[in-house]
Design goal:
The chain is α/β, with parallel strands linked by helices. It has seven helices and ten strands. Helix 7 links the parallel strand 9 and strand 10. The longest helix is centred in the N-terminal third of the chain and has 18 residues. The relative contact order is 0.18. The model has no long low-confidence stretch (mean pLDDT about 95).
């Protein structure tokens, strides 16, 4: 795994956006795997800026999001589809037919999960997958557990993740308890993976990811060690416990 340490969150965001922009220019119909949460917001802000100021063209780009809460439709302000619209899609010239976010309101969940993986395969696979990392080491909504799903599946969220995500809701009771999530196998099929982390609250988990060399389902991020092309981009605070 390659590690890039930026001085602060803004630098992390600019570096990531510039890298993605360079790849979009080389391959206009690139397939991007996208994440939600506070960490990638800055990257999306910078991509919007590059679109507006430099004409970065998203018209042929295809995107697949990692996950979505079960039970929330795309109009719900706490859904990940709504998040992506607000922080990226509404501000660039992407073709809406090329946007794929799991449908949290689908009635046949298991069939839908298999369909989502087939859509990714039909697109030619994900060229670059953007990831965040949870404080418990989860990737997407692949939580520490006895077993992890290889493909997209329905997952039960841990108390830790529900607590972490409660800041986006009026109360912890409103946080959904299940989600649709790409599996670790789906994620590892991406040609390149970029993991982003910032802030002191991510320092311990980043130290664990970088310094340990075992693989366990109780630390889902450890499976990234199996991938041949992973870049970790962190700010100084997230890297502060290393060395």
């Amino acid at each position: 795994m390659k590690v890039i340490v930026e001085k602060d969150y803004d630098s992390l965001s600019k570096t990531t956006a510039q890298f993605l922009a360079s790849k979009i220019k080389i391959k206009p119909n690139i397939v991007l795997g996208l994440a939600t949460g506070s960490t990638p917001k800055g990257t999306y802000r910078e991509l919007i800026k590059l679109h507006r100021e430099e004409g970065l063209d998203f018209s042929k780009v295809r995107t697949f999001n990692l996950d979505e809460y079960v039970g929330l439709d795309g109009e719900h302000p706490n859904s990940y589809r709504y998040f992506m619209n607000v922080f990226l899609f509404n501000h660039i010239n992407i073709n809406r037919d090329n946007i794929f976010v799991p449908d949290g309101k689908t009635k046949e969940l298991e069939k839908y999960c298999k369909k989502y993986d087939r859509l990714i395969e039909k697109s030619g696979g994900i060229d670059i997958q953007i990831l965040g990392i949870g404080t418990n080491g989860h990737i997407a909504f692949n939580e520490p557990a006895d077993e992890l799903s290889t493909g997209t599946s329905i997952v039960n969220l841990t108390k830790n993740t529900i607590r972490d995500n409660s800041r986006f809701f009026k109360s912890i009771d409103e946080v959904p308890k299940t989600a649709i999530s790409m599996g670790m196998g789906s994620i590892l099929k991406a040609k390149k993976i970029i993991l982003l982390a910032n802030g002191k609250n991510k320092a311990e988990i980043i130290k664990k990811l970088i310094e340990e060399d075992t693989i366990t389902t109780y630390f889902p991020a450890s499976f990234l060690r199996l991938h041949p092309d992973v870049t970790i981009i962190v700010d100084g605070e997230a890297y502060s416990l290393i060395g």
